[in-house]
DUF6607 family protein (Pedobacter sp. KACC 23697), 312 residues
Amino acid sequence: MKLLNLIFVLTGLITLNTYAQTKIDSPEEKLEKDRKAIKSLAGFYEVNFNYGEVTAPDPNYKFSKPYESHGNEWAEIIVDEPKRIVIQHMLAINDTTVIKHWRQDWTYEDTDIMLYTEGNAWKKGNLTPADVKGKWTQKVYQVDDSPRYQGFGTWSHIGGHDSWSSETDSPLPRRESTVRKDYNVLNRGSRITLTKNGWMFEQDNKKIIRSASGDKLLAIEKGYEEFTKIDPETFANAQKWWASQSAYWADVRGVWADIIGAQSTFKIQTVANGKLLYETLFSLGDQSIKEKWTASQNKEKIKAALQPYLVK
C-alpha cells in the first residue's frame, strides 16, 4: 500500500512538473516577460564590437578587413509605458568625453513602420494587426535622432532563455558609411539574446547593391556586439551630462516625430551648409543649455535647423 501511495505521489509530481514546463503564458504574462527582457537591455556596459565578412557569390571578391572595437556604453530607459519602451545609449570615452549614441524604441503590436529603401530614404510600410500580433518593433535611430532602421519580431522565453530576432534593410553601418562605395543597403538579420552578464547583439548581414533592376548580393558578414555589465561609476560624467541635455533631446525627438509622421516617404542628407546633421543638433543643444531656452524655443530652432537636411 505504501508503495502504491509513493507511486501516486511521484506520478503527481511528474505531472505537475510537466505542466509547469509546458504551461502557455496568457497574453498578459507574455507581455510582461517581454517588457522585462527589453528593460534588461538597459544598464552600464563594456561593449565589444566584432564584424567580419564570411562569404561572397563572386569568387574574385576581395574580403574587407575584419572590424574590431570596444567602448563603454550606458543604456538608459527614458520612456517606460505599457507598450512602448525607449532606451537611449551614451558612450563614455573617458572621464570628460560623452557622446550621445544610438537610440532604440520598442513598440508593441505597432502597425506603423518606416522601411529603408536606399540613399538615406525611407517609406511607410503597410502592416496589419495580424502581422504584428504579439510582436515588438525595434526602431533604431542615429545619434542625431534621425531614423536608421526598424524591424519587428517575437520575443521568445523558452526554457528561461530570452531572445528576439528580426530582418530589415538599413543604411550602411557607421563603420563603413564613409569608406565603402561598392554597396548601398545593408540587410540586417538581428538577434538579441540576454546573457548572465548582459546581452548579445548578433547579426547576419547581407551587403546589397540596390538599383532599378533589383538587388544584387555583394557579400555576407557576421557580427557580434557583446554588452557586459560594468561598474556604473565609470559613467558618472555621462549621467551628469545627460541630466543637463535630456530635455533638449526630448524636444528633438518630438520634432523628428512630427516631421516623419506627416510623410509617407522621407529622405535626408547628412551634410548641409558645410555641417553634418549631428554637429548642427549637438551645437544647438549646447546653445540651448547655455541660453536656457524653453521647450517652445527648442522646438522652433530645431525645426528650422533641420530644414536644410530634408530632401524635398
Summary: Residues 28-234 form a domain with the Lipocalin fold (CATH 2.40.128).
